[in-house]
C-alpha cells in the first residue's frame, strides 16, 4: 500500500506540474517571417535613392559642393538619439495593435511624406517665389524633408528588426532565417533603388513630373520618389498585416512576449543605458583595436557612400550641376555602379558564414579592409588619368574609363558587406568575452 500511495502521489505531482506549465508557443511559419521582413525592401529602396541621387540634386538646387555633406549630419545624429528612444518607447507601447507595428507604420508614413517633400521641393520653391539657379526656398523644403527622412529611416528600421526578434523568440535557427530574410530584402531594395536612379526615362513614363520648376533630371528624381512611396506602402501593408502582435500586458502565455519578459528586458535596458559609457574604461586592448579600426574603416566608407555618384559625374564625366548633360549622365552611371555593388554585396552576404568558418572572421575582415583601400587608391589613380585626357568639358569619357570606374564600384560591394556583417560578429564575440571577465 505505501508503494502504491507513493506512485499515486508522484502521478498527481507530475499532473499538477503539467497543468502549471505554460503551453509552448507555436513556431512562426517561415512564410510569415518572409512577409514581415519585406518592409526592409521598401525602406532600403528609398535609402538607395537617397544615397545615389540627393547629393547631386542638392547641388542642382544651388548648395555649394563643399556644403553638401553638412546636410548628411542628420543621419548619425538621428541614429544616435532616435533609435534608442524609439526602442525605449516601443518596448513599453501598450497599443492594441502591438508594440512594434505602430512605430513601423508611423515611420513608413513619415518616409512617404519626406520623399514627397524632397521630390516636390523645386515645385514648392517655385510657388513660393524661387527663380534662377539659386533657389533658397526649395533648399529649405529639401533640407526639411531630408532630415525627416533620416529620422523616419532610423525610426522604422529598429522596430522592424525587433518585431522579427519578438516573433522568433529563443528559436536561434528561426532568428538566423529572419535576419537572412531581412538582409535579402535590403539587397533587393538596394538593387531596385539604384536601378531606378540609373534610369533616365522616368519623365516620359510620368510626364506630369516635368514642370516649369523641374527639368528632366529633377523630373526623373521626382518620379523615382513617387515609385518609392508606392513600394514602401505595399511592403508596409504586407508586413503589418502578416504580424499579429499581442498587446503588452496580455495574459496569453503563448504570445510572442509577456508582461514578465517585458519587465526583465526593461531592467536590462535601463542598466545598459546607465552603464554604457562607464564600461569604456574596462575595455581590453583587443576591443579598443577593433573599435579604432572600425572608426577608421567607416571614415573611408562614408565619403564614398555620400559622394560616389557625384564623383562619377564630376571627375569621370567632367560635368558640373546645371551645366550640360555630362554631370547628370555621370550620376546615372554612378547609380548603375552602385546597383552592381549591391549585387556583389548580396552575394557576399550569402557566402559570409562559410567564408568565416573556413578562414576566420578576423582574416576576412582584414583582407576586406586591404581590398577597400586598394579600390580607393584605384579611384584616385583613375581620377588622375581622367583629368589628363582631353575629353573633359566637351565630350563623354572613353568607355575604358567608365568601365574601370564601374568595376571599382562593383568590387567595393564585397568589402562593404564584410564591414557590415563580419564587424558585428567580431564586436559581439569580443564584448561577450569581455563580459565573461
Question: Features of this protein?
Answer:
single chain, 437 residues, mainly alpha, 16 helices, 76% helix, 0% strand, globular, disordered C terminus, Sucrose transport protein SUC4
What does this structure look like?
The protein is mainly α. Helix 12 runs antiparallel to helix 16 and helix 13 runs parallel beside helix 15. 40% of the residues are buried. The C terminus is likely disordered.
Strand content: under 5%
Rg is: 25 Å
According to DSSP, the number of beta strands is 0
Q: Which structural class fits the helix and strand makeup?
A: mainly alpha
The gist of it:
The chain has helices spanning 2-20, 30-37, 39-60, 74-91, 101-119, 121-127, 136-168, 172-198, 202-205, 216-242, 259-275, 285-316, 326-359, 361-387, 399-411, 413-436.
Topology summary:
Layout: H1 2-20, H2 30-37, H3 39-60, H4 74-91, H5 101-119, H6 121-127, H7 136-168, H8 172-198, H9 202-205, H10 216-242, H11 259-275, H12 285-316, H13 326-359, H14 361-387, H15 399-411, H16 413-436
Amino acid at each position: 500500500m505505501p508503494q502504491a500511495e507513493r506512485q499515486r502521489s508522484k502521478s498527481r505531482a507530475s499532473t499538477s506540474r503539467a497543468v502549471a506549465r505554460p503551453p509552448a508557443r507555436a513556431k512562426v511559419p517561415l512564410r510569415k517571417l518572409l512577409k514581415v521582413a519585406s518592409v526592409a525592401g521598401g525602406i532600403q529602396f528609398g535609402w538607395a535613392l537617397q544615397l545615389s541621387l540627393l547629393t547631386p540634386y542638392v547641388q542642382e538646387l544651388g548648395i555649394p559642393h563643399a556644403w553638401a555633406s553638412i546636410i548628411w549630419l542628420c543621419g548619425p545624429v538621428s541614429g544616435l538619439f532616435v533609435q534608442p528612444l524609439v526602442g525605449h518607447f516601443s518596448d513599453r507601447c501598450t497599443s492594441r495593435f502591438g508594440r512594434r507595428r505602430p512605430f513601423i507604420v508611423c515611420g513608413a508614413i513619415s518616409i512617404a511624406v519626406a520623399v514627397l517633400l524632397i521630390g516636390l521641393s523645386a515645385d514648392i520653391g517655385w510657388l513660393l517665389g524661387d527663380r534662377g539657379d539659386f533657389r533658397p526656398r526649395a533648399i529649405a523644403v529639401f533640407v526639411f524633408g531630408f532630415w525627416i527622412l533620416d529620422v523616419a529611416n532610423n525610426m522604422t528600421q529598429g522596430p522592424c528588426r525587433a518585431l522579427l526578434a519578438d516573433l522568433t523568440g529563443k528559436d536561434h535557427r528561426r532568428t538566423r532565417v529572419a535576419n537572412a530574410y531581412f538582409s535579402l530584402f535590403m539587397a533587393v531594395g538596394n538593387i531596385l533603388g539604384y536601378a531606378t536612379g540609373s534610369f533616365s526615362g522616368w519623365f516620359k513614363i510620368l510626364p506630369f513630373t516635368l514642370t516649369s520648376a523641374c527639368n528632366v533630371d529633377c523630373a526623373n528624381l521626382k518620379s523615382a520618389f513617387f515609385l518609392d512611396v508606392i513600394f514602401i506602402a505595399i511592403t508596409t501593408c504586407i508586413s503589418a498585416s502578416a504580424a499579429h502582435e499581442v498587446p503588452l500586458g496580455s495574459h496569453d502565455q503563448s504570445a510572442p512576449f509577456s508582461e514578465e519578459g517585458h519587465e526583465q528586458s526593461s531592467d536590462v535596458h535601463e542598466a545598459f543605458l546607465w552603464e554604457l559609457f562607464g564600461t569604456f574604461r574596462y575595455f581590453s586592448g583587443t576591443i579598443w583595436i577593433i573599435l579604432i579600426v572600425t572608426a577608421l574603416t567607416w571614415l573611408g566608407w562614408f565619403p564614398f557612400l555620400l559622394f560616389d555618384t557625384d564623383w562619377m559625374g564630376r571627375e569621370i564625366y567632367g560635368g558640373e550641376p546645371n551645366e550640360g548633360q555630362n554631370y547628370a549622365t555621370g550620376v546615372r552611371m554612378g547609380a548603375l555602379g552602385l546597383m552592381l555593388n549591391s549585387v556583389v554585396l548580396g552575394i557576399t552576404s550569402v557566402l559570409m558564414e562559410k567564408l568565416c568558418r573556413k578562414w576566420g572572421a578576423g582574416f576576412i575582415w582584414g583582407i576586406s579592409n586591404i581590398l577597400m583601400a586598394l579600390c580607393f587608391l584605384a579611384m584616385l589613380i583613375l581620377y588622375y588619368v581622367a583629368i589628363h585626357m582631353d575629353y573633359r568639358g566637351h565630350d563623354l569619357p572613353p568607355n575604358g574609363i567608365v568601365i574601370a570606374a564601374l568595376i571599382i564600384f562593383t568590387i567595393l560591394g564585397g568589402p562593404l558587406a564584410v564591414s557590415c556583417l563580419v564587424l558585428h560578429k567580431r564586436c559581439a564575440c569580443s564584448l561577450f568575452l569581455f563580459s565573461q571577465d
